[in-house]
Amino acid sequence: MTIDTARFQVMLNDSKLSFTQAIIPRANAPKQKIQGMEIIAVERVEEAVDRVR
Q1: Can you tell me the distance from the alpha carbon of 20 to that of 18, in angstroms, rounded to the nearest whole number?
Q2: Nearest Cα to 35, choosing from 53, 20, 50?
Q3: Strands (E), the chain
């Protein structure tokens, strides 16, 4: 399943109300920083798991 990048940006902006970090696919990384949220862009699930540890 793929999500339109613009829609993904809206989802990230909405989620900053509850979260301060997001691990997302590098292909969906926002072009601009989202204030109050650290974006962790990864290429593989393995990278995401390593970041959580």
Answers
A1: 7
A2: 20
A3: 21-25, 38-42
For residue 14 the two structure tokens come to 């909405």
Domain ranges of the chain: 5-52
Give this prediction's pTM.
Answer: 0.70
According to DSSP, residue 18 is labeled T
Residues 6+ apart with CB under 8 A from 9: 30
Summarize pLDDT for 28-52 with one digit per residue, the tens.
Answer: 888 888 888 899 999 999 999 999 8
Nearest in space to 22 (alpha carbons), one of 50, 53, 48: 48
The number of beta carbons lying within 10 Å of the beta carbon of residue 52 is 9
Rg (CA), the chain: 11
